[in-house]
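Retry 2 of 3 after timeout on previous attempt. Resubmitting structure tokens to design endpoint.
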């Protein structure tokens, strides 16, 4: 439903604008592609570590999380 998208407790945001949620979905979908698909555009391990706040993460785990959040946002904004 256009308007806002509510997020549960502990997310630090109670609601975001519907258009912002759609934009975030696009960004996360593209990030997932850059994490999951091999090729010249793929993110390096150093870039993945930087995106994770300097903590080393497994690429697959981070890609799965980003993909899951993108799908949940897509469903919430549909």
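Retry 2 succeeded. Sequence:
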């Amino acid at each position: 439903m256009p308007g806002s998208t509510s997020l549960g407790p502990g997310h630090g945001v109670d609601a975001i604008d519907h258009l912002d949620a759609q934009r975030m979905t696009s960004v996360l979908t593209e990030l997932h592609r850059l994490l999951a698909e091999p090729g010249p555009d793929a993110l390096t391990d150093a870039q993945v570590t930087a995106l994770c706040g300097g903590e080393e993460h497994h690429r697959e785990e981070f890609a799965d999380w980003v993909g899951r959040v993108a799908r949940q946002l897509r469903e919430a904004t549909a």
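Attempt log closed. The chain has three helices and two strands.
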